[in-house]
């Protein structure tokens, strides 16, 4: 029931997802009176869906603390189903902060994971790149960054299909002496870990778009700023292109000549291809769809969730952590003064504007 055009685009997106994943079975939480007529338009989907009536909906502007009290809301009941083992993952286009708070409190984190991270996929000159954290943890210590690196590595292998993704730590320079203690400590741990061969070292902001690494690891504050900066740059480029190709008659002719190439560029940068931010490190798959997406975008978020479930994403994280953290010192030894525990609700509140 969440999102700007729910529940219509959710049902239509599920129909697209079922075509791609015919083995999929779905629990659809929401107002049964509204969902049943929509499912009637998709007979094949109706056979793969069980409608679970929910009397309440969490509004998009509701604070996470208030959302926790709505125990019969569709989002709450969907997450409860994952916690009870009735479903393996949840996809929602609803309130981002509420989704993170509910998922963190109800599902809890995987053994060995201190905090969940929000990961997303962005375009680069060399293909797609995974970025995390995008806003779930404003402050992190070295061990948190190491955990993010492991989760990003598994995510790139499962969702992007990369056999040996390269991993980089976002820093103010690529030299080893750059950055603060937590970054240098995280780098030392990764260099001594089983994924050392794929650890590139430090990367800078321009390396994200260049595709220097397949995975970019950072804290939530820096990651969210980088994300929004990249989004703003893409919008500016689009605006400038429109101005250039509408400035004169000759420019319009030039647009017609370059139309096919520009269409390929538009498809490559289509935000629907990158819809589906993932909350990694939880006891269950949790994917956040952009609230303003359409059916195709929601189907892509479903693709991400289905891939993670099919390829047993969380089991891979457990295996990866066991090897990497064996090279890490005790948590107290890698803490920094900047790394205080951030309550799940406070972190969720900071994510209200972090969806992409």
Q: Roughly how many Å apart are the termini?
A: 19 Å
What profile does the largest beta sheet have? 8 strands, mixed
Query: How many extended strands?
Result: 10
Please work out how many helical segments DSSP would assign: 14
Regions with little confidence, pLDDT below 50 for 5+ residues: 332-356
Determine the structural class based on helices, strands and strand pairing.
Answer: alpha/beta
Tell me roughly what share of residues is in helical segments.
Answer: 40-55%
SSE string: HEHHEHHEHEEHEHEHEHHEEHHH
- The largest beta-sheet arranges its strands as 3-10-9-4-5-8-6-7
Please indicate the percent range of residues in DSSP E strands (runs of 2 or more). 5-15%
Shape: globular
Overview of the structural elements:
By secondary structure, the chain is of the alpha/beta class. The protein is 47% helix and 13% strand. It contains 14 helices and ten strands. The strands form two sheets. It has an eight-stranded mixed beta sheet with strand order 3-10-9-4-5-8-6-7, sandwiched between helices. It has a two-stranded parallel sheet with strand order 1-2. β9 and β10 (285-288) form a beta hairpin. The two termini are 19 Å apart.
Question: Brief description of this entry?
Answer:
This protein is α/β, with parallel strands linked by helices and 356 residues long. The protein is 47% helix and 13% strand. The protein has an eight-stranded mixed sheet with strand order 3-10-9-4-5-8-6-7, sandwiched between helices. A two-stranded parallel ribbon has the order 1-2.
């Amino acid at each position: 029931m969440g999102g700007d055009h729910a529940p219509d685009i959710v049902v239509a997106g599920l129909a697209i997802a079922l075509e791609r994943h015919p083995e999929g079975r779905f629990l659809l939480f929401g107002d049964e009176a509204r969902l049943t007529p929509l499912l009637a338009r998709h007979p094949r989907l109706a056979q793969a869906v069980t409608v679970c009536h929910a009397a309440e909906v969490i509004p998009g502007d509701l604070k996470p603390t208030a959302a926790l009290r709505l125990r019969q809301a569709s989002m709450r009941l969907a997450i409860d189903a994952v916690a009870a083992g009735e479903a393996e993952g949840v996809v929602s286009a609803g309130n981002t902060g509420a989704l993170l708070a509910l998922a963190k409190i109800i599902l809890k984190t995987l053994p060995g994971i201190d905090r969940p991270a929000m990961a997303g996929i962005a375009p680069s000159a060399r293909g797609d790149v995974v970025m995390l954290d995008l806003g779930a943890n404003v402050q992190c210590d070295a061990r948190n960054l190491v955990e993010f690196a492991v989760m990003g590595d598994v995510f790139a292998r499962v969702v992007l299909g990369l056999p040996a993704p390269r991993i980089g730590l976002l820093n103010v320079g690529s030299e080893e002496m750059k950055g603060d203690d937590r970054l240098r400590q995280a780098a030392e741990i990764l260099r001594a870990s089983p994924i050392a061969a794929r650890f590139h070292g430090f990367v800078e902001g321009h390396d994200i778009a260049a595709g220097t690494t397949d995975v970019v690891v950072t804290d939530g504050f820096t990651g969210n700023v980088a994300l929004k900066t990249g989004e703003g740059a893409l919008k500016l480029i689009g605006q400038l292109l429109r101005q250039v190709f509408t400035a004169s008659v000759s420019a319009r002719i030039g647009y017609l000549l370059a139309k096919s190439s520009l269409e390929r560029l538009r498809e490559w940068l289509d935000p629907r291809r990158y819809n589906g931010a993932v909350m990694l490190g939880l006891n269950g798959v949790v994917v956040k769809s952009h609230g303003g997406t359409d059916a195709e975008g929601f189907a892509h978020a479903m693709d991400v969730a289905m891939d993670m479930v099919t390829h047993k994403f969380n089991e891979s994280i457990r295996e990866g952590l066991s090897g990497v953290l064996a090279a890490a010192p005790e948590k107290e030894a890698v803490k920094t003064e900047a790394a205080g525990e951030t309550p799940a609700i406070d972190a969720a509140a900071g994510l209200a504007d972090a969806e992409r």
